[in-house]
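Troubleshooting entry. The earlier prediction with iron/sulfur cluster gave an output that would not parse, so I re-checked the input for stray whitespace and re-submitted. Clean input:
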Amino acid sequence: MAGKILISACLMGLPVRYDGSAKPLLHEAVSRWREEGRLVTFCPELAGGFSIPRPAAEIERAMDGGDVLDGSARVIEASGRDVSDGFVEGARHALEIARENGCRHALLIDGSPSCGSGFVYDGSFSGKRQAGEGVTSAYLRRHSISVFAHTEVERLVAELAAEDAIPS
Ligand code: SF4
């Protein structure tokens, strides 16, 4: 039986982003996985106690989610309010849900301070990107969940096909 995939709720069309919007991911493979019941829809920030809408948040000082987990950086709102605890809590819930559902892969939207896996914003609230991962992606990866960005569906398809080809 092919494994399940944890997916960012906003990619599934749920309007849960900080500004109340969604970012539906239209891709044939995603539609197929949805029909096969293989997608586990999850929003770390809602699980961390945040509401919709909520102020935008970024990881400070050009650091990333791993630094937040290590306690050497904070997730902050533009006002300077420290919201790190909610982001870490959301990451922990994401891992729980992934494990409960047997997910070994996650498909998360890039750029988010939670779900980013290739880039995040640099904490200056000026739209400047930098390489790095969000808090949930870092936490999942530290616990052996393979995280893919929404731009990497084809790579995920290839990895799943390669795993399915290995005799169990
Ligand atoms: Fe989407 Fe992740 Fe942000 Fe939730 S935390 S709105 S799933 S990017």
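This one parsed fine. The mean pLDDT is 96.
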